[in-house]
Amino acid sequence: MRLLHTSDWHLGRSFHRVSLLDAQAAFLDHLVATVHDHDVDAVLVAGDVYDRAVPPLAAVELFDTALHRLAEAGVPTVMISGNHDSARRLGVAARLIDRAGVHLRTDPDGIGTPVLLPDPPHGEVAVYGLPYLEPALVRERLGAPRTGHEAVLAAAMDRVRADLATRPEGTRSVVLAHAFVTGGEPSDSERDITVGGVASVPAGVFDGVDYVALGHLHGAQALTDRVRYSGSPLAYSFSEWRHRKSMWLIDLAPDGGVTAERIDCPVPRPLARLRGRLDDLLADPALDRHEDAWVEVTLTDPVRPAEPMARLTRRFPHTLGLVFEPERSDTSEDLLSYARRLRGRTDQQIAEDFVTHVRGGAGPDAHERAALRGAFDDVRADLAVREREVGR
Question: Across residues 131-157, what is the average pLDDT?
């Protein structure tokens, strides 16, 4: 049986205020084309269909179109809710949609009831959907001994294994789950799911099944041959700039063996992270390849340059992020306590020292010193006037 594993669509999400709806629509076109081109038998979507619990209408319409196209393709789809989704909203009309071959699994009570996919003559494949399990909300329902991600997932997998034990010998099994599994590499894009200081669970929790289709982490990665993250189809933060966005094409052999192939997703615009002094970045010919990319720039100039964003966008018109990290030289003076550095210094000297500090060692010029001096003189004059008024 051939499975297409994807997750973390985050429909409705933007990238630094740039709408990604067109890019998400292009991905869904690619998904449907892949289903046809590679003779896919079933599609697995491991959570975070939407980016938030109440998604914008355009995202809902995009999702609705995708469901219709998958149903028309006659290829079963199994989909779970993630930590960004509202499980109850996503699961509305799930039983009705089941009839079209789109199986939404959003209710923890249904964890032990699989979607059975026929694969003659090799028997059925049992697909279990484990929606995102918020420990505090599902612990009692699942009979977990304590609150925590590992405990509730272990309890959920106990239900899966108990049901699987009732199936005919040789029944192959697949689990969809939305979780942070130990060994996975996170990015800045995932919402924190830490409970009790622990966010991750060991991969061993999923022992006993043939394939585990994971969602939550945005980088595609294989924790084992049988436990994989598909990652998100699009980048949602600059921390993902090195990611190769893809889906997993999984062939599940009659004996439960797994082979996997990565299917690349369309890239709306590449990402680049640039670092250095402004003049160097504007002049470096090696950066020509990034001129059409979405760019995040970290400027290291000791003194903040004038109009940096305007100058950057003339060369890199899709610059979306600008960070300042001035180069600093460590001196013994920097190690002294703040109180010691203030001792015996005038207000003017303290202000000039502050300017020197925030600029990484470059002090104020004559014009700036005069401006500081004038500001202090104005403050002192205002205080003197107030004191005279109080004295009356």
Answer: 94
pLDDT digits (tens, 9 = 90+) for 354-387: 888 777 678 888 888 888 888 887 887 777 667 5
Contact status, residue 130 vs residue 177, Cβ threshold 8 Å: yes
d(CA 156, CA 218): 23
Q: Report which residue type is found at 375.
A: A
- Helices (H), ranges, the chain: 21-37, 57-72, 87-90, 94-98, 135-142, 149-164, 278-283, 308-315, 338-342, 347-358, 366-391
Q: What is the pTM of this model?
A: 0.82
Instruction: Return the residue matching tokens 């219709």.
Output: 68
Closest by CA to 220, choosing from 268, 260, 271, is 260
**Pair 47, 9: CB distance under 8 Å:** no
Q: What are phi and psi of 104, to 5 degrees?
A: -90, 125
The whole-angstrom separation of Cα 315 and Cα 389 is: 57
Cα(1)–Cα(4) distance, integer angstroms: 10
**The dihedral sign for the CA sequence 94, 161, 222, 40:** negative
Q: Are residues 169 and 122 in contact, defined by beta-carbon separation less than 8 angstroms?
A: no
> CA–CA separation, 140 vs 147, rounded Å?
9
Cα dihedral 265→269→270→273 (10° resolution): -140
* 118 Cβ neighbours under 8 A, 6+ residues apart: 124
pLDDT of residue 212: 98
